[in-house]
């Protein structure tokens, strides 16, 4: 565990029209950036001999610790702290970081005499609130794990930054738990028109499906709920595995006989009107045995909506961690399907990405 380090008074720097002597190109950039206006920033440089072991946004070269934290301030809007390697001349010795030590486990701040750790205090940068927020602030952000803030708590999510315009936030199973993060879905799901689902196959590969309403229902929003099947003005069909308590609920239109997956129609003939049209995603924290509903006839493991949906999947080039994949229940009533992913022959779970 890292020892407590006394914080020195905030180190302020104010530049107006003039450069500081770092290196020629950095001076030119700094002058261009701050010409005609005051340029103020504040940082904590008290953690000498420490390195924060967390995600590095970018590696850059710096002439000094001051140069390193300045590049955090100027080069990367998501940067909130930096590690400066003192013993590495002529190389990319400055690590620009997305988080600060107070948000990380105590053991993440490690003694390392080769490094000094700096924290950007002004401008005060808060963690982003979604992957869409990250992509808006940093158009070049790549897919991967990021930290966001939900209900004043830091959550590590996976961001898909390329497919279908990017900005999809994939939710780890640990974030779906009653009594915590009540605003998770409302914060992440704002366009109400599309959801990205990744399917984990048993051979280790992953495929993606992009879910939208059928073309005849373009104005009908998708419904995503957290730990409930009650939406605005309507109660949807309850999942068979709702006894597990924690889940995410995705309902496609109750007025249509299917949905679009990767722009392909997944349809069936319900024969009668039913509001049972949903996916439910269970983290199954207590490792409970899934419902035995319809296990007397496994016809929907070879045909039906669930099989047709999975068959639209397209291969992912980058795989995401297993802690994002949920036990998945699908129920499209009156002949569509009832199934859960513990029964699937070729796959074993689904991850859900919201935007």
Automatic annotation (TrEMBL):
SUPFAM superfamilies, alphabetized: Fibrinogen C-terminal domain-like (SSF56496)
Signal sequence annotation: none
InterPro entries: Fibrinogen-like_C, Fibrinogen_a/b/g_C_1, Fibrinogen_a/b/g_C_dom, Pan_app
Membrane-crossing residue ranges in chain numbering: none
Pfam families listed in its UniProt record: PAN_1 (PF00024)
UniProt protein name: Uncharacterized protein
Species, as recorded: Paramuricea clavata (Red gorgonian)
């Amino acid at each position: 565990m890292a020892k407590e380090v006394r914080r020195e008074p905030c180190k302020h720097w104010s530049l107006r029209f003039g450069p500081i002597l770092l290196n020629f190109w950095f001076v030119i950039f700094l002058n261009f950036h701050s010409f005609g206006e005051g340029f103020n920033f504040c940082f904590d440089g008290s953690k000498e001999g420490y390195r924060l072991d967390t995600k590095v946004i970018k590696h850059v070269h710096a002439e000094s610790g001051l140069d390193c934290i300045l590049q955090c301030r100027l080069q990367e809007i998501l940067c909130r702290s930096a590690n400066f390697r003192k013993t590495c001349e002529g190389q990319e010795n400055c690590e620009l970081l997305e988080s600060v030590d107070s948000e990380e486990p105590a053991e993440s701040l490690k003694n390392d005499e080769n490094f000094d750790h700096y924290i950007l205090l002004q401008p005060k940068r808060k963690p982003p609130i979604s992957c869409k927020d990250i992509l808006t602030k940093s158009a070049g952000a790549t897919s991967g794990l990021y930290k966001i803030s939900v209900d004043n708590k830091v959550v590590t999510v996976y961001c898909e930054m390329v497919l279908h315009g990017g900005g999809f936030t994939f939710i780890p199973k640990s974030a779906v738990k009653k009594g915590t993060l009540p605003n998770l879905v409302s914060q992440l799901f704002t366009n109400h028109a599309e959801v990205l689902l990744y399917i984990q196959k048993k051979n280790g590969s992953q495929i993606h499906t992009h879910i939208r309403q059928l073309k005849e229902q373009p104005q009908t929003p998708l419904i995503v709920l957290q730990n409930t099947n009650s939406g605005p003005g309507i109660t949807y069909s309850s999942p068979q595995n709702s006894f597990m308590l924690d889940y995410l609920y995705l309902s496609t239109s109750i007025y249509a006989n299917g949905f679009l997956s990767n722009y392909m129609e997944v349809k069936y003939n319900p024969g009668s009107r039913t509001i049972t049209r949903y996916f439910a995603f269970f983290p199954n924290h207590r490792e409970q045995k899934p419902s035995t509903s319809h296990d007397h006839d496994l016809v929907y493991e070879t045909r039906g909506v669930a099989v047709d949906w999975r068959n639209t999947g397209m291969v992912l080039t980058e795989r995401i961690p297993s802690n994002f994949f949920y036990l998945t229940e699908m129920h499209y009533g009156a002949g569509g399907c009832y199934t859960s992913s513990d029964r699937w022959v070729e796959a074993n779970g689904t991850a859900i990405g919201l935007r």
